[in-house]
Design brief:
The protein has 344 residues and is an alpha/beta fold. The chain is 35% helix and 21% strand. It has 2 domains: 2-236, Rossmann fold (3-Layer(aba) Sandwich); 246-339, no CATH class. The chain is built from 15 helices and 14 strands. The protein has a 6-stranded mixed β-sheet. Strands 2-1-4-5 form a 4-stranded antiparallel β-sheet. α5 (107-120) crosses α7. The protein is globular.
């Protein structure tokens, strides 16, 4: 668990982080979102004491980080940055092994951990452990950077705009990989970005920064509520706020069950014939995008339930705030292009 208590950082007369208080429960993926200069990276770096607060404090699992020597503190926190920061004269294996080596792990344990992490990153160990950073693509280098951050199996992972310099296709793949990693590991992750799409794709919890202040914090559906303050509406776009809100609502929550469908000449109990198939964990935004792409007013879920255009539109503009606050988090991991096929 990470807790900020009136954390403040000043440079001269300017507060770049201004009395921020919030708590990130253990096992959550919290995204710090804000424009350049909002203070989000400075706040995150207070966790591993790369930035020392001028006032307030930061607690990690109930301990004030100021009471923990920097070296052991940082050994227990994974840290991934945009520039990756791989040592150019070291092999991939040696780069990944940096922290375990500092911790005194034996060679056999380190080698096994390196291979495990390369497999986890989708990089065959036999092909990659002996390569050097200049022999890697941008996406491969970022995966190695993530593997290095995970090498000592830290419970907390800090990620400062790690995917922002990558091509869109590579970025989407790494975003999905991060969601899968988080689901499988239960690590507490603090992720910094200025990209609203990336934030909504990844976040369990969303914290929005502006001019050093925390202006919103909660589940994405809560932050994007219909009475959101003007600063939130500007950041996400007045014209697209409802569209973004759909991304927080599971498609299954507006679907009509197969047992309630009217059976007609072109329908079957398992769903409507020739209806495009949506992934089971997709959200309403993905359902709408698939409908637009396929030129249809409905899509099907694998269990035979159907999501209809009028119901999606109602969810975007007429659903109560309470419905969005209580809805379970929608899975972001399926792009519309992946939801192809026909209903069973």
């Amino acid at each position: 668990m990470i807790r900020f208590e009136k954390a403040t950082k000043r440079y001269g007369q300017r507060s770049v982080v201004d009395a921020v208080s919030m708590e990130i429960p253990a096992g959550r993926l919290c995204v710090l979102l804000g424009e350049s200069g909002s203070g989000k990276s400075t706040l995150m770096r207070m966790v591993n004491r790369l930035v020392i607060p001028d006032a307030g404090r930061v607690l990690l699992d109930g301990r004030d980080t100021a009471s923990i020597p920097p070296e052991p503190l940082r050994h227990g926190i994974g840290y991934v940055i945009q520039s990756v920061g791989l040592f150019p004269h070291w092999t991939v294996a040696r780069n990944i092994a940096t922290v375990p080596t500092l911790l005194g792990w034996d060679a056999a344990r380190i080698a096994a951990r390196v291979d495990t992490l390369l497999d986890l990153m989708g990089l065959p160990p036999d092909q990659f452990r002996g390569r050097y950073p200049h022999e890697l693509s941008g996406g491969q280098a970022q995966r190695i950077g993530l593997a290095r951050a995970l090498a000592a199996d830290p419970p907390v992972l800090l990620m400062d705009e790690p995917f922002s310099a990558l091509d869109p296709g590579i970025r989407r793949g790494l975003q999905r990989a991060l969601r899968d990693l988080h689901a499988g590991s239960g690590k507490t992750i603090l992720f910094v970005t200025h990209d609203v799409e990336e934030a909504l794709l990844l976040a369990d919890d969303l914290a929005v920064m502006q001019d050093g202040r925390l202006i919103a914090h909660g589940r994405p559906a809560e932050v994007l509520r219909r009475d959101a303050e003007p600063a939130i509406r500007r950041l996400f776009g007045e014209a697209t706020l409802a569209f973004h809100r759909l991304g927080t609502l599971p498609a299954a929550s507006v679907a009509i069950g197969a047992d309630k469908l009217a059976i007609g000449a072109d329908e079957s109990p398992g769903g409507i014939a020739d209806t495009p198939l949506l992934h089971a964990d997709a959200n309403c935004k993905q359902a709408l995008m698939l409908m637009l792409d396929q030129g249809t007013d409905r899509v099907a879920l694998p269990d035979g339930a159907v999501v209809r255009l009028p119901d999606v539109m109602a969810a975007s503009g007429a659903a109560s705030d309470a419905a969005f606050r209580t809805a379970p988090r929608a899975s972001p991991g399926v792009a519309p292009e992946a939801a192809s096929g026909t209903a069973p």
